[in-house]
Amino acid sequence: MTTGASNSGAARARRTLAWLVGASLCMLAPFAARAATEAVQIVEAAPETAVPAPPPPDSYTAEQRSFLAALDRLLAAQDYKTLAEQILSPKISAHLKPALDWTRTGTLTGRSIIVPLIYASLLWELGVNYPQFADFKTSSGIVALYALLVAHADGFKCADPTAPSHRIDVIGEQYRNQFAALAVEPEAKRRDAIAAAINMERTTAELRGNDKYLCRFGMQETLDDLQKHQGEPVTAKPKSAFAGFEIELPRDPDYEPSFLTRDEWTKKQAAARARFPTMLAGFLAKYKTRAAHPQTSALPEAAPSR
């Protein structure tokens, strides 16, 4: 590829990302202009200078500020199910703007993978249910691709490799409609979406720390929970008329997964990142022939609520 072609592709990726978190939000003014500016900055800036400033507190009502503080508390408490429900099923319409701000800013500043996953679900909900927000469906797909890349890149940080492997499988299933929609886009638009997701992952890489959500719900946690709750009753519920029963294991809401040292995962992460363009192209190709499924909220796996 020539340098000119490479620069052209990078420019398209920047425009795609700017559209993703900026222009596509123009119908949710008054914060569209700020979102568009931050989108370009986070692609072009170095990682250490790419942190977009959150909206000023005085842009929210007291009730909205309380809502945002509650989202931070839920994430810190690993109450992922309630976090997703608060954002995807808001009790009042005034929560929509701060929910979009919180998930967008959290995505672009490298917060836990649960944040872009919820953001992708929120964008999809708006795109599916409101014709004026139809472009949000493509935005949702790009964010979901970004989350998939984060799982591949940061999964090497997890001491239990079954946790990120499970998360990758879940993302592929829960966000199949987003991926199927991207898969049938014209080739140029599909390439731009892939480039935007790759740029997002690369730009936020140094902002992302050890991710408890990504490294939870694997085999090691299951074994640890069984050991901790040995002898306690378990609940069995039918999966379907033909699939037998599903055992609900007791979960520890305060479970702390283990992580590897930087020296143990850096080279593996770099090698995986080099394969991302080819990997994503092949990944989307598999969704071209998949039928769409009804999809509302892609609620995340969750530790029990307190």
Shape annotation: globular
Q: Distance N terminus to C terminus?
A: 54 Å
How would you write the strand order of the largest sheet? 1-2
Question: Which residues sit in consecutive blocks of at least 5 with pLDDT less than 50?
Answer: 1-6, 12-50
Mean pLDDT level: 79
Please identify the oligomeric state: single chain
Order of helices and strands: HHHHHHHHHHHEEHH
Structural class: mainly alpha
Q: Number of helical runs?
A: 13
- Main sheet characteristics: 2 strands, antiparallel
Q: For the CA atoms, what is the radius of gyration?
A: 19 Å
Helix content: 55-70%
Key features?
single chain; 306 residues; mainly alpha; 2 domains; two-stranded antiparallel sheet; 13 helices; 3% strand; globular; disordered N terminus
Would you give an account of this structure?
The structure is a single chain. This protein has 306 residues and is mainly α. The protein folds into 2 domains: 3-216 and 260-285, no CATH class; 217-256, no CATH class. 58% of the residues lie in helices and 3% in strands. It has a two-stranded antiparallel ribbon with strand order 1-2. Strand 1 (235-238) and strand 2 form a beta hairpin. Residues 1-6 and 12-50 have low confidence and may be disordered.
